[in-house]
Design a protein that fits this description.
Strand content: 15-25%
Oligomer: single chain
Number of domains: 1
CATH topology: Maf protein
CATH architecture: Alpha-Beta Complex
Radius of gyration: 15 Å
Strand order of the largest sheet: 2-1-3-4-5
Order of helices and strands: HEHEHHHEEEH
Helix content: 40-55%
Number of strands: 5
Low-confidence stretches: none
Largest sheet: 5 strands, mixed
Number of helices: 6
Distance between the termini: 26 Å
């Protein structure tokens, strides 16, 4: 899916986005902002690299980080939920991961994601997954941002189907 198709999809489904980004450092939001009229689609963006920023800005619990590590779907999910609470968005996309071998237990290029969709009954629907990319640091970051955005229509269809 290209960016124009994604924008059309977001507009058609009245989805307004907030991002909570670690490894991508704002690339998800920046990609959306490249499109004319992005102000209709993008509420705000958080870049939270450090554990302290994830906790303070997004409400990630220290216990979650201690139990699962920074590169985990659990941390990504808490980032997404924290971002969703921040404003008027009804969709949050979060990413956390590594591009190099800083941790011997985590393969370079590992990216963890969460997408949180606001629901009418008040309980957000969260989907999380982990994916691994190869290549240079910046290639991993760019592919990760692209992947995060391209998954939105697929996951939205799942969420919409479950709520029927």
């Amino acid at each position: 899916m290209d960016l124009d198709q994604l924008v059309t999809f977001l507009q058609a489904h009245k989805l307004r986005l907030v991002t909570a980004e670690s490894c991508t450092a704002g690339l998800i939001a920046s990609t959306v902002a490249d499109v004319e009229g992005a102000g209709e689609l993008l509420d705000c963006a958080f870049v939270a690299y450090s554990p302290q920023a994830k906790q303070k800005c997004l409400g990630v619990r220290a216990e979650t980080i201690a139990e699962f590590g920074l590169t985990s779907e659990q941390v990504a999910a808490e980032m997404a939920l924290g971002a969703l609470k921040s404003g008027s968005a009804n969709l949050a996309v979060a990413n956390t991961g590594v591009t190099d071998s800083v941790d011997p237990d985590i393969a370079p290029g590992t990216q963890c994601y969460a997408w949180a969709f606001a629901s009418l009954d008040g309980a957000p629907v969260v989907h999380s997954e982990t994916k691994r990319f190869g290549g240079s640091r910046n290639r991993i970051r760019h592919e990760s941002a692209h992947y995060a955005l391209c998954r939105i229509p697929v996951l939205w269809q799942q969420v919409a189907g479950e709520s029927r």
